[in-house]
Amino acid sequence: MNYAEPPVADILEFIAQDGCTDEQFDRLALRLFAYQYGANAAYRGFCQRRGATLRTVKTWSDIPPVPIDAFKAMELRCEAPSPAERVFMTSGTTRADTRGRHFHPRLDVYDLSMTRNFARRFMQGAERLPMGILFPDEIAMPNSSLAHYLALAKSGFGAAGSRYFMSPQGIDLDGLWQALEQAERQGEPYALLGASYGFVHVIDAMRRQGRSFRLPPGSRILDTGGYKGQSRELPLDDFYSSLSELLGVPRALCINMYGMTELSTQFYDDGNAVVPSVKSGPHWIRSRLVDPATGRTVPAGERGILAHCDLGNFNSVSTILTEDVGQPAEGGFLLLGRAGGAQAKGCSLAVEEFIRSAAP
Predict the structure, then answer these.
(1) How far is CA 112 from the centre of its chain?
(2) Which residues of the chain have pLDDT under 50?
């Protein structure tokens, strides 16, 4: 087996298949780990410091998770830079001085991961829907993974008339009202997708103007990314109740996507009739809850920091340590917010350890 080349063809085939066994996931996860261990010196040093080698790592959960702030501290890549690569960058809302960077020498893995998962979890059998996008496009934000994600949604699943209603200059509210009124008149299901903070601005504008809509049955909403200081904070229950009340979309079809610049795969819930909702991913990503200071899985049933093993991350590191607190739930996990106190300190220590391990 050639560990000097990324197993891209096998990853694409794996994503395209319907489900997998634990053994199949482990086999590809270990092959990807072997490639990244050999091709990424910084990662290899970190693994060795954690006692993880090609001999000792037996399953995906043995792979040491790399803290996401390492993406800000250095270039985490296996392939050399190329003019054609895409670089997705974090928003910089937590540390404005530095932004994490995720290098994609090619986007076919990311794109297949997005479209396979989006078709099942958001489209739910619909081939195309007219879509309104509440986020700037890729021309305005070429380094945004969310801009690329939404461009894929629009091109792959949007019906005629789908368009963006947000630019760096703000939201085209008049255009949005017209599109929503047209959907009401025609009785055709409509999809509204974007950053959570964009929806807060729409909610506030509708309340100011005394507007509301009753979108046709089958209409749905996708929000992601939280508020990031771009809008006022709304409790989740108020947020989804307002969307349902003002747009006529049942909360069960108000779907939240949980994604990260440092990942190539997204998580979804099955609507937000109840919050917090259970998030889950497709068969090519696995999650566990860990103690950030050690990287070890917490005892069953306990809260911990989410670590994700994403087989779509072929060029960086497959397994990342987030700064998000999670709790186990049937079928997935509950997302409980950012780490604080001892858990936040553990995340910081993990970053320091990674940087020390990477030092020449």
Answers:
(1) 14
(2) 94-96
